UniProtKB/TrEMBL annotation:
Residue span(s) of domain Putative restriction endonuclease: 15-162
Entry keyword set: Endonuclease, Hydrolase, Nuclease
Protein's UniProt keywords contain tRNA processing: no
Name listed for the protein in its UniProt record: Uma2 family endonuclease
SUPFAM superfamilies noted in UniProt: Restriction endonuclease-like
MF terms in GO: endonuclease activity
């Protein structure tokens, strides 16, 4: 008897992934190149920083609906594409469609030792989304926030980080959403 050749599994689109019931585990997944990939469990420090950013952004945006922070929302270029990422926190004024955001203004990623390389690999995808104005990387091991900004013409990104903040009194300013938050507040209750 001849064995049937095993082909590659069909790649999922974002639309299919949005309807996918999951793999039976409690893991969060991202869609990378058409393949669902489980995400690492965040550390307590990571979760605290994510919660702090979400709370600060909520307070700053609460009187400006529909603008709001959303945690770990699927973010994609379109439903036809094969990649959907789930940033730690997204600031957006758009409504999700089928559990998916197709536009964001600010993206926050909290860097942990287990996700450092993966997070840096996401930057080109985030930068390719036309509505994204700022990408903020927040280190969970030390007080350091790195900000990338799109040029004022809206087309290109600054090649290197535009801003690096490292002191409790430093203030992260996000002009695209007209909000600011101190590093002391971002890192509140995070032991170093």
């Amino acid at each position: 008897m001849n064995a049937l050749p095993l082909g590659k599994p069909a790649l999922m689109t974002v639309a299919e992934f949005a309807d996918w019931p999951g793999d039976g585990t409690d893991s969060n997944h991202e869609l990378i190149g058409g393949i669902p990939v489980a995400q690492a469990q965040p550390s307590p420090e990571h979760g605290t920083i994510q919660a702090n950013i979400t709370g600060l952004a909520f307070l700053a945006l609460r009187d400006r609906p529909p603008c709001r922070p959303i945690t770990e929302a699927g973010l994609a270029k379109s439903f036809r594409h094969h990649t959907m990422r789930a940033p730690d926190v997204v600031l957006t004024c758009q409504e999700p469609v089928r559990r998916t955001l197709l536009e964001a203004t600010v993206i926050f990623e909290v860097l942990s030792p287990s996700n450092w390389a993966d997070t840096l690999a996401k930057l080109p995808f985030y930068a390719s989304l036309p509505g994204v104005r700022e990408i903020v990387l927040v280190d969970s091991r030390r007080m350091e926030v790195t900000v990338y900004r799109r040029h004022d013409d809206g087309d290109d990104w600054v090649d290197a980080p535009e801003e690096r903040l490292t002191e409790p009194g430093h203030v992260l300013r996000l002009p695209s959403m007209d909000i600011a938050m101190s590093l002391a507040d971002i890192y509140r209750n995070v032991p170093f």
